[in-house]
Amino acid sequence: MARVFVYGTLKKGQPNYKHMINTTKGIAKYQGRGRTVEKYPLVIAGKYNIPYMLNIPGTGHHIAGEIYTVDDQMLRFLDEFEGCPDMYQRTTMRIEVVEWEGKRGTAEVRPASSGVMECFVYNTSTYQPEWVQLPYHDNYDSSGTHGLSYVLRENRD
């Protein structure tokens, strides 16, 4: 099992969460909430209002999200879903655990006593230069006050 930190449309209550609970795509177990140890810019960009965490450490905010353990099948699905490695790149980041719901498990799954763990995160180094000028968010919500609702793939032209 691998740990994955999601910060965008795959979180609970967001447009693509359905994929996280679709067992035909693999297994994803919600473990808790966290935030990036380092600051990153989280922007909403493109004509489909897609959230992107730009791989510019030290700029932006500590990004809030959810921590999951996923099996190999789900990890392969997420790589494909996120357009890895072209649109997003799967990298390892340090995530501070804010709230842990994970059941008693192996030390591999539990957070360290420091409350920080390494997780895979889908961020991007392949962004448009003008995205750096967009507003930075710390917690993505497709229905947020930003007014930039995510456009589902099935509704795109």
UniProtKB/TrEMBL annotation:
Q: Where is the active site?
A: 82 (proton acceptor)
Top EC class of this enzyme: lyase
Keyword DNA-binding present in the record's keywords: the answer is no
Domain of life, source organism = Eukaryota
One short Pfam family name for this protein? GGACT
InterPro entries (UniProt xref)? AIG2-like_dom, GGACT, GGCT-like, GGCT-like_sf
Q: Name one GO molecular function term.
A: gamma-glutamylaminecyclotransferase activity
Q: Which SUPFAM superfamilies match?
A: Gamma-glutamyl cyclotransferase-like
Q: Which terms are listed as keywords in the entry?
A: Lyase
Reactions catalysed according to its record: epsilon-(gamma-L-glutamyl)-L-lysine = 5-oxo-L-proline + L-lysine
Per UniProt, residues of the Gamma-glutamylcyclotransferase AIG2-like domain are: 4-124
Q: Write the Enzyme Commission number(s) for this entry.
A: 4.3.2.8
Question: What is any one GO biological process for this UniProt entry?
Answer: modified amino acid catabolic process
User: Is the keyword Ribonucleoprotein in the record?
Assistant: no
GO cellular component entries:
cytosol
Signal peptide span: none
Tell me its family: Belongs to the gamma-glutamylcyclotransferase family.
Function per UniProt: Catalyzes the formation of 5-oxo-L-proline from L-gamma-glutamyl-L-epsilon-lysine.
Q: What is this protein called?
A: Gamma-glutamylaminecyclotransferase
> What species does this protein belong to?
Chrysolophus pictus
